[in-house]
Amino acid sequence: MFTVQPRREDHGTNFSCRSELDLRSQGLELFQNTSAPRKLQTYVLPSTDPHLEAPRVVEVGSRWPVKCTLDGLFPAWDAEVYLVLGDQKLKSNTMYNGDSVLAEAWLEENEEGTHSLKCSVNLGEKDRRTRSNVTIYSFPVPTLTLSPPEVSEWTTVTVECVTRDGAVVTLNGVSAEPPGPRAQLKLNVSADDHGSNFSCSAALKIAGQVVHKNQTRELHVLYGPRLDQRDCLGNWTWQEGSEQTLKCEARGNPIPKLNCSRKGDGASLPIGDLRPVKREVAGTYLCRATSTRGGVTREVVLNVLHGQNILDIVIPVVAVVLILGALGTAGYIYNYQRKIQIYELQKARKAQEEAALKLHAQSTPP
């Protein structure tokens, strides 16, 4: 019997035992026997525990990755890694890199509660283990209701958000008072509220972490047709031959039907692209928007500038400018002459006063 200090490079070395019995001196032969070979297994297992990466909280039915790693192994490729959730062994994929081993698995559980997640790395006759707790929870999205979901303008709608006990809701950014699983608000709606979104956020603290669930709803407000300046400008003046886009659209819920006809001949207003603008589309149009909620009428004007009507506009304008210029010039000349006359009168009066003073001084005896 002898003792060997194994080294890493001895891993996998075959050993065998050979015995001999020499009886040739007694007239017999040399007897030899060799044992079956044995392979030397050399292992290095660090004193540190594996590193386990896993979420602390997982929602029922969702899938999350789990990783377990350990460095400093020899030979790493002989290591076996096991991931176990509760008493269920997870199907994992093991990878080796140098003296490291990595096992990956997907965590999926449909039963609520706190479960123990364990990772075990076995090498030779020894192992290293680590564990952590994973909380499986169920937290449905909050229930957000608009009552009624479709309302007429200037009526009251109730918005309510409800979630499970233990959670706290926030409705449109405002927390429930007192904090709890239910929040409500009432508002008198107008046409401007049509299409508004209401949001409800529910927060639940699980195993020291806060998880959120959100819900949104859109409000539909029924209101009659609108046809104001922001929907239909109502007065367009364009140059003939230019390229323009005429926009005229009525608002309302339900969407109103718009009909615009020209006074006199009933021609339709050319809504859309005008490429090019023609003088034939000019005129005054009567637009009417109607729906099941009522109707509204508005008069609009489309002017098209062309050669003749430009002269019709320019000539009077030039004439007015010339007249105003002439009046201004005449007024200036009049004021100038008037100022000269006043100056001459003041000058003559001053001369008379000086002459009178001089005569008075001469007639006074010494």
Low-confidence spans: pLDDT under 50, at least 5 residues?
none
For the record, what CATH class of the largest domain applies?
A: Mainly Beta
Beta-strand fraction estimate: over 45%
Give the overall shape, derived from the CA principal axes: elongated
What's the CATH topology name of the largest domain? Immunoglobulin-like
Going by CATH, the architecture of the largest domain would be: Sandwich
Number of domains: 4
Number of strands: 29
What do you see in this structure?
With 366 residues, this protein is α+β, with helices and mostly antiparallel strands. It has four domains: 32 residues, no CATH class; 87 residues, Sandwich (Immunoglobulin-like), CATH 2.60.40.10; 80 residues, Immunoglobulins (Immunoglobulin-like, Sandwich); 82 residues, Immunoglobulin-like. 16% of the residues lie in helices and 46% in strands. The protein is built from one helix and 29 strands. A hairpin with a 2-residue loop joins strand 10 and strand 11. It is elongated and about 180 Å long. The mean pLDDT is 85. One of its GO terms (molecular function) is integrin binding. This is ICAM1.
Quick overview of this protein structure:
By secondary structure, this protein is an alpha+beta fold. It has 1 helix and 29 strands.
Provide the descriptors you would attach to this structure in a database record.
alpha+beta; Immunoglobulin-like; integrin binding; 366 residues; 4-stranded antiparallel sheet; single chain; 4 domains
Write the layout of secondary structure elements.
Layout: E1 14-15, E2 18-22, E3 30-34, E4 38-39, E5 51-53, E6 57-59, E7 63-70, E8 80-85, E9 88-89, E10 92-97, E11 100-108, E12 113-123, E13 126-137, E14 143-147, E15 150-152, E16 156-162, E17 168-171, E18 174-175, E19 182-188, E20 197-206, E21 209-218, E22 220-226, E23 235-239, E24 244-246, E25 251-253, E26 257-262, E27 272-274, E28 283-291, E29 294-305, H1 307-363
Parallel strand pairs: 6-13, 15-22, 23-29
Antiparallel strand pairs: 1-4, 2-3, 5-7, 7-11, 8-9, 8-12, 10-11, 12-13, 14-16, 16-19, 17-18, 17-20, 20-21, 22-25, 24-27, 26-28, 28-29
